[in-house]
Amino acid sequence: MRLLIKFGLSGKKQTLPLNYQYPVSAWIYKVLLTANKEFADMLHDNGYRLENGKTFKLFTFSRIQFPNHTWKIIPGTDRMQIWARTARLTISFQLPEQSENFVIGLFKDQHAFIGDKVSGIDMDVEIMEVLNTNKTIRERTTLKAITPIVLGLNIDGLKNEQYVTPLHPEYKKVFLNNLIDKYRAAGNNKYTTKDIDFKITKLYPKTAMQVIKAGTDAETKVKAYYFDFEITAPEEIIEVGLNAGFGSMNALGFGFVR
Protein backbone atom coordinates (compact mmCIF):
# COMPACT_ATOMS: atom_id res chain seq x y z
CA MET A 1 0.00 0.00 0.00
CA ARG A 2 1.23 3.47 -0.89
CA LEU A 3 -0.24 6.36 1.05
CA LEU A 4 0.20 9.85 -0.36
CA ILE A 5 -0.05 12.43 2.41
CA LYS A 6 -0.60 16.10 1.60
CA PHE A 7 0.36 18.54 4.33
CA GLY A 8 -0.52 22.13 5.01
CA LEU A 9 2.15 24.59 6.19
CA SER A 10 1.87 28.15 7.44
CA GLY A 11 3.88 29.68 4.60
CA LYS A 12 6.17 31.36 7.13
CA LYS A 13 9.90 30.72 6.76
CA GLN A 14 11.05 27.57 8.53
CA THR A 15 14.38 25.74 8.44
CA LEU A 16 14.65 22.01 7.71
CA PRO A 17 17.78 19.87 8.12
CA LEU A 18 19.01 18.37 4.84
CA ASN A 19 19.32 15.01 6.60
CA TYR A 20 15.69 14.66 7.65
CA GLN A 21 15.13 10.97 6.95
CA TYR A 22 15.50 9.90 10.58
CA PRO A 23 13.01 12.53 11.87
CA VAL A 24 10.47 11.42 9.23
CA SER A 25 10.93 7.79 10.26
CA ALA A 26 10.56 8.75 13.93
CA TRP A 27 7.33 10.64 13.13
CA ILE A 28 5.87 7.60 11.36
CA TYR A 29 6.61 5.44 14.40
CA LYS A 30 5.16 8.09 16.70
CA VAL A 31 1.89 8.12 14.75
CA LEU A 32 1.65 4.34 14.95
CA LEU A 33 2.50 4.35 18.65
CA THR A 34 -0.15 6.88 19.64
CA ALA A 35 -2.92 4.77 18.15
CA ASN A 36 -1.82 1.20 18.79
CA LYS A 37 1.24 0.56 20.95
CA GLU A 38 1.32 -3.16 20.24
CA PHE A 39 1.37 -2.61 16.47
CA ALA A 40 4.04 0.11 16.67
CA ASP A 41 6.23 -1.92 19.01
CA MET A 42 6.04 -4.84 16.62
CA LEU A 43 7.31 -2.64 13.79
CA HIS A 44 9.94 -0.83 15.85
CA ASP A 45 11.35 -3.67 17.95
CA ASN A 46 10.79 -6.75 15.84
CA GLY A 47 9.39 -5.90 12.45
CA TYR A 48 8.72 -9.03 10.43
CA ARG A 49 11.05 -11.77 11.62
CA LEU A 50 12.54 -14.72 9.73
CA GLU A 51 13.49 -17.98 11.41
CA ASN A 52 17.18 -17.02 11.15
CA GLY A 53 16.57 -13.93 13.27
CA LYS A 54 16.64 -11.35 10.47
CA THR A 55 14.02 -8.64 10.83
CA PHE A 56 12.49 -6.21 8.36
CA LYS A 57 10.30 -3.19 9.09
CA LEU A 58 8.67 -3.48 5.63
CA PHE A 59 7.95 0.17 4.99
CA THR A 60 9.75 3.05 3.32
CA PHE A 61 9.00 6.59 2.21
CA SER A 62 9.79 9.21 -0.39
CA ARG A 63 11.51 12.54 -0.02
CA ILE A 64 9.30 15.40 1.14
CA GLN A 65 8.19 17.32 -1.94
CA PHE A 66 7.64 21.07 -1.82
CA PRO A 67 6.29 23.20 -4.69
CA ASN A 68 8.87 24.84 -6.94
CA HIS A 69 10.34 28.12 -5.72
CA THR A 70 9.21 27.56 -2.13
CA TRP A 71 12.51 26.32 -0.71
CA LYS A 72 16.26 26.78 -1.02
CA ILE A 73 19.42 25.31 0.47
CA ILE A 74 21.15 27.78 2.80
CA PRO A 75 24.73 28.12 1.47
CA GLY A 76 27.43 26.70 3.70
CA THR A 77 25.00 24.88 5.99
CA ASP A 78 23.24 21.54 6.34
CA ARG A 79 19.84 23.29 6.27
CA MET A 80 17.21 24.33 3.79
CA GLN A 81 14.79 27.21 4.14
CA ILE A 82 11.13 26.40 3.54
CA TRP A 83 8.31 28.88 2.97
CA ALA A 84 5.87 26.53 1.24
CA ARG A 85 2.19 26.30 2.09
CA THR A 86 1.93 22.65 1.04
CA ALA A 87 4.11 19.53 1.02
CA ARG A 88 3.73 15.91 -0.07
CA LEU A 89 5.12 12.66 1.33
CA THR A 90 4.44 9.11 0.16
CA ILE A 91 4.72 6.28 2.70
CA SER A 92 4.80 2.74 1.36
CA PHE A 93 3.79 -0.21 3.58
CA GLN A 94 3.82 -3.97 3.10
CA LEU A 95 0.77 -4.82 5.16
CA PRO A 96 -1.98 -7.41 5.32
CA GLU A 97 -4.95 -6.04 3.39
CA GLN A 98 -7.11 -6.03 6.50
CA SER A 99 -4.67 -3.61 8.19
CA GLU A 100 -4.66 -0.97 5.47
CA ASN A 101 -7.74 1.02 6.50
CA PHE A 102 -6.58 0.90 10.10
CA VAL A 103 -3.19 2.43 9.18
CA ILE A 104 -4.80 5.10 6.98
CA GLY A 105 -6.94 6.16 9.92
CA LEU A 106 -3.88 6.62 12.11
CA PHE A 107 -2.51 9.45 9.99
CA LYS A 108 -5.75 11.42 9.70
CA ASP A 109 -5.45 14.97 11.12
CA GLN A 110 -1.97 14.33 12.50
CA HIS A 111 0.58 17.07 13.17
CA ALA A 112 4.22 16.55 12.18
CA PHE A 113 7.34 18.30 13.39
CA ILE A 114 10.21 17.21 11.16
CA GLY A 115 13.58 18.36 12.39
CA ASP A 116 16.20 18.12 15.11
CA LYS A 117 17.25 20.09 18.21
CA VAL A 118 18.43 22.97 16.00
CA SER A 119 15.51 23.52 13.63
CA GLY A 120 12.59 21.92 11.89
CA ILE A 121 9.27 22.48 10.18
CA ASP A 122 5.67 22.09 11.36
CA MET A 123 3.15 20.44 9.04
CA ASP A 124 -0.44 19.27 9.40
CA VAL A 125 -1.96 16.33 7.52
CA GLU A 126 -4.78 17.64 5.33
CA ILE A 127 -5.46 15.09 2.59
CA MET A 128 -4.58 11.40 2.14
CA GLU A 129 -4.80 9.31 -1.00
CA VAL A 130 -4.11 5.60 -1.53
CA LEU A 131 -2.06 5.08 -4.70
CA ASN A 132 -2.68 1.98 -6.78
CA THR A 133 0.62 0.47 -7.91
CA ASN A 134 -0.74 -2.95 -8.89
CA LYS A 135 -1.77 -1.82 -12.38
CA THR A 136 1.84 -0.91 -13.21
CA ILE A 137 3.42 -4.21 -12.14
CA ARG A 138 4.56 -6.64 -14.82
CA GLU A 139 6.72 -9.74 -14.50
CA ARG A 140 9.45 -7.71 -16.21
CA THR A 141 9.41 -4.17 -14.87
CA THR A 142 11.82 -1.24 -15.06
CA LEU A 143 12.04 0.76 -11.85
CA LYS A 144 13.75 4.00 -10.83
CA ALA A 145 15.24 4.72 -7.41
CA ILE A 146 13.58 7.90 -6.13
CA THR A 147 15.49 7.67 -2.87
CA PRO A 148 18.95 6.09 -3.00
CA ILE A 149 19.45 2.36 -2.52
CA VAL A 150 21.91 1.06 0.04
CA LEU A 151 23.26 -2.44 0.55
CA GLY A 152 25.96 -3.73 2.86
CA LEU A 153 28.31 -6.56 2.00
CA ASN A 154 30.67 -8.54 4.17
CA ILE A 155 34.07 -7.97 2.53
CA ASP A 156 37.35 -9.74 3.27
CA GLY A 157 35.97 -11.44 6.36
CA LEU A 158 35.24 -8.18 8.18
CA LYS A 159 32.70 -8.49 10.98
CA ASN A 160 30.70 -5.42 9.97
CA GLU A 161 29.08 -4.90 6.60
CA GLN A 162 30.56 -2.27 4.31
CA TYR A 163 28.45 -0.08 2.00
CA VAL A 164 29.60 -0.75 -1.55
CA THR A 165 28.94 0.35 -5.10
CA PRO A 166 26.38 -1.51 -7.22
CA LEU A 167 29.30 -2.39 -9.51
CA HIS A 168 30.63 -4.82 -6.91
CA PRO A 169 30.52 -8.41 -8.30
CA GLU A 170 28.45 -9.66 -5.33
CA TYR A 171 25.93 -6.82 -5.44
CA LYS A 172 23.32 -8.63 -7.54
CA LYS A 173 23.37 -11.69 -5.30
CA VAL A 174 22.89 -9.65 -2.14
CA PHE A 175 20.19 -7.48 -3.77
CA LEU A 176 18.14 -10.55 -4.73
CA ASN A 177 18.64 -12.29 -1.38
CA ASN A 178 17.47 -9.14 0.41
CA LEU A 179 14.30 -8.98 -1.70
CA ILE A 180 13.48 -12.67 -1.18
CA ASP A 181 14.05 -12.31 2.57
CA LYS A 182 11.47 -9.49 2.65
CA TYR A 183 9.08 -11.60 0.60
CA ARG A 184 9.46 -14.48 3.08
CA ALA A 185 9.20 -12.17 6.09
CA ALA A 186 5.83 -11.04 4.75
CA GLY A 187 4.63 -14.63 5.07
CA ASN A 188 5.35 -16.02 1.59
CA ASN A 189 7.54 -18.96 0.59
CA LYS A 190 6.42 -19.92 -2.90
CA TYR A 191 9.47 -18.50 -4.70
CA THR A 192 13.26 -18.29 -4.27
CA THR A 193 16.04 -16.24 -5.84
CA LYS A 194 16.05 -18.76 -8.70
CA ASP A 195 12.75 -17.26 -9.82
CA ILE A 196 13.98 -13.66 -10.11
CA ASP A 197 16.57 -11.69 -12.03
CA PHE A 198 17.88 -8.15 -11.76
CA LYS A 199 20.10 -5.87 -13.81
CA ILE A 200 21.02 -2.22 -13.55
CA THR A 201 20.07 -0.31 -16.68
CA LYS A 202 21.44 3.07 -15.64
CA LEU A 203 23.75 3.95 -12.76
CA TYR A 204 23.74 7.66 -11.99
CA PRO A 205 27.09 9.30 -11.18
CA LYS A 206 25.48 11.15 -8.28
CA THR A 207 25.83 9.27 -5.00
CA ALA A 208 24.17 10.12 -1.71
CA MET A 209 26.15 10.42 1.51
CA GLN A 210 23.36 10.68 4.03
CA VAL A 211 23.78 11.27 7.75
CA ILE A 212 21.49 9.43 10.15
CA LYS A 213 20.96 10.93 13.65
CA ALA A 214 23.18 13.86 12.70
CA GLY A 215 24.83 15.70 15.58
CA THR A 216 24.35 12.88 18.09
CA ASP A 217 26.63 10.20 19.53
CA ALA A 218 24.82 7.70 17.30
CA GLU A 219 25.56 9.63 14.08
CA THR A 220 26.07 7.31 11.12
CA LYS A 221 27.08 8.14 7.56
CA VAL A 222 25.53 5.98 4.87
CA LYS A 223 26.62 5.92 1.24
CA ALA A 224 23.81 5.02 -1.14
CA TYR A 225 23.27 5.02 -4.90
CA TYR A 226 20.69 6.10 -7.45
CA PHE A 227 20.05 3.77 -10.37
CA ASP A 228 17.37 2.46 -12.72
CA PHE A 229 16.99 -1.30 -12.90
CA GLU A 230 15.03 -4.02 -14.60
CA ILE A 231 13.63 -6.79 -12.46
CA THR A 232 12.10 -10.01 -13.74
CA ALA A 233 10.06 -11.79 -11.09
CA PRO A 234 6.55 -12.90 -10.16
CA GLU A 235 4.34 -9.86 -9.63
CA GLU A 236 3.85 -10.57 -5.92
CA ILE A 237 7.61 -10.33 -5.29
CA ILE A 238 7.90 -7.04 -7.18
CA GLU A 239 4.95 -5.74 -5.16
CA VAL A 240 6.84 -6.48 -1.92
CA GLY A 241 9.78 -4.42 -3.21
CA LEU A 242 7.49 -1.54 -4.18
CA ASN A 243 5.79 -1.61 -0.80
CA ALA A 244 8.72 -2.35 1.50
CA GLY A 245 11.58 -0.82 -0.48
CA PHE A 246 14.58 -2.30 -2.27
CA GLY A 247 17.91 -2.77 -0.54
CA SER A 248 18.49 -2.13 3.16
CA MET A 249 17.53 0.49 5.76
CA ASN A 250 14.15 1.07 4.12
CA ALA A 251 12.47 2.31 7.29
CA LEU A 252 14.90 5.25 7.13
CA GLY A 253 13.67 6.20 3.68
CA PHE A 254 16.13 4.30 1.47
CA GLY A 255 15.07 2.22 -1.54
CA PHE A 256 11.79 3.95 -2.45
CA VAL A 257 11.29 3.36 -6.18
CA ARG A 258 8.92 4.33 -8.96
Folded structure, characterized:
The chain is globular, with a radius of gyration of 18 Å. Helices cover 22% and strands 34% of the residues. With 258 residues, it is of the alpha+beta class. The strands form five sheets. It has a five-stranded antiparallel β-sheet with strand order 5-8-1-10-9. A three-stranded antiparallel β-sheet has the order 2-7-6, with no helix packed on it. Strand 14 and strand 15 form a beta hairpin. The protein has two domains: 130 residues, Alpha-Beta Plaits (2-Layer Sandwich); 119 residues, Alpha-Beta Plaits, CATH 3.30.70.
Quaternary state reads single chain
Evaluate the radius of gyration.
Answer: 18 Å
Secondary-structure element string: EEHHEEEEEEHEEEEEHEEH
Tally of discrete structural domains: 2
Please identify the structural class as seen in this structure.
alpha+beta
| CATH T-level fold name of the largest domain | Alpha-Beta Plaits
What's the pLDDT, averaged over the residues? Answer: 88
Largest sheet: 5 strands, antiparallel
- As a percent range, the share of strand residues is 25-35%
Which residues sit in consecutive blocks of at least 5 with pLDDT less than 50?
Answer: none
Strand order of the largest sheet: 5-8-1-10-9
Number of helices: 5
Shape: globular
Share of residues in helices: 10-25%
Strand tally is 15
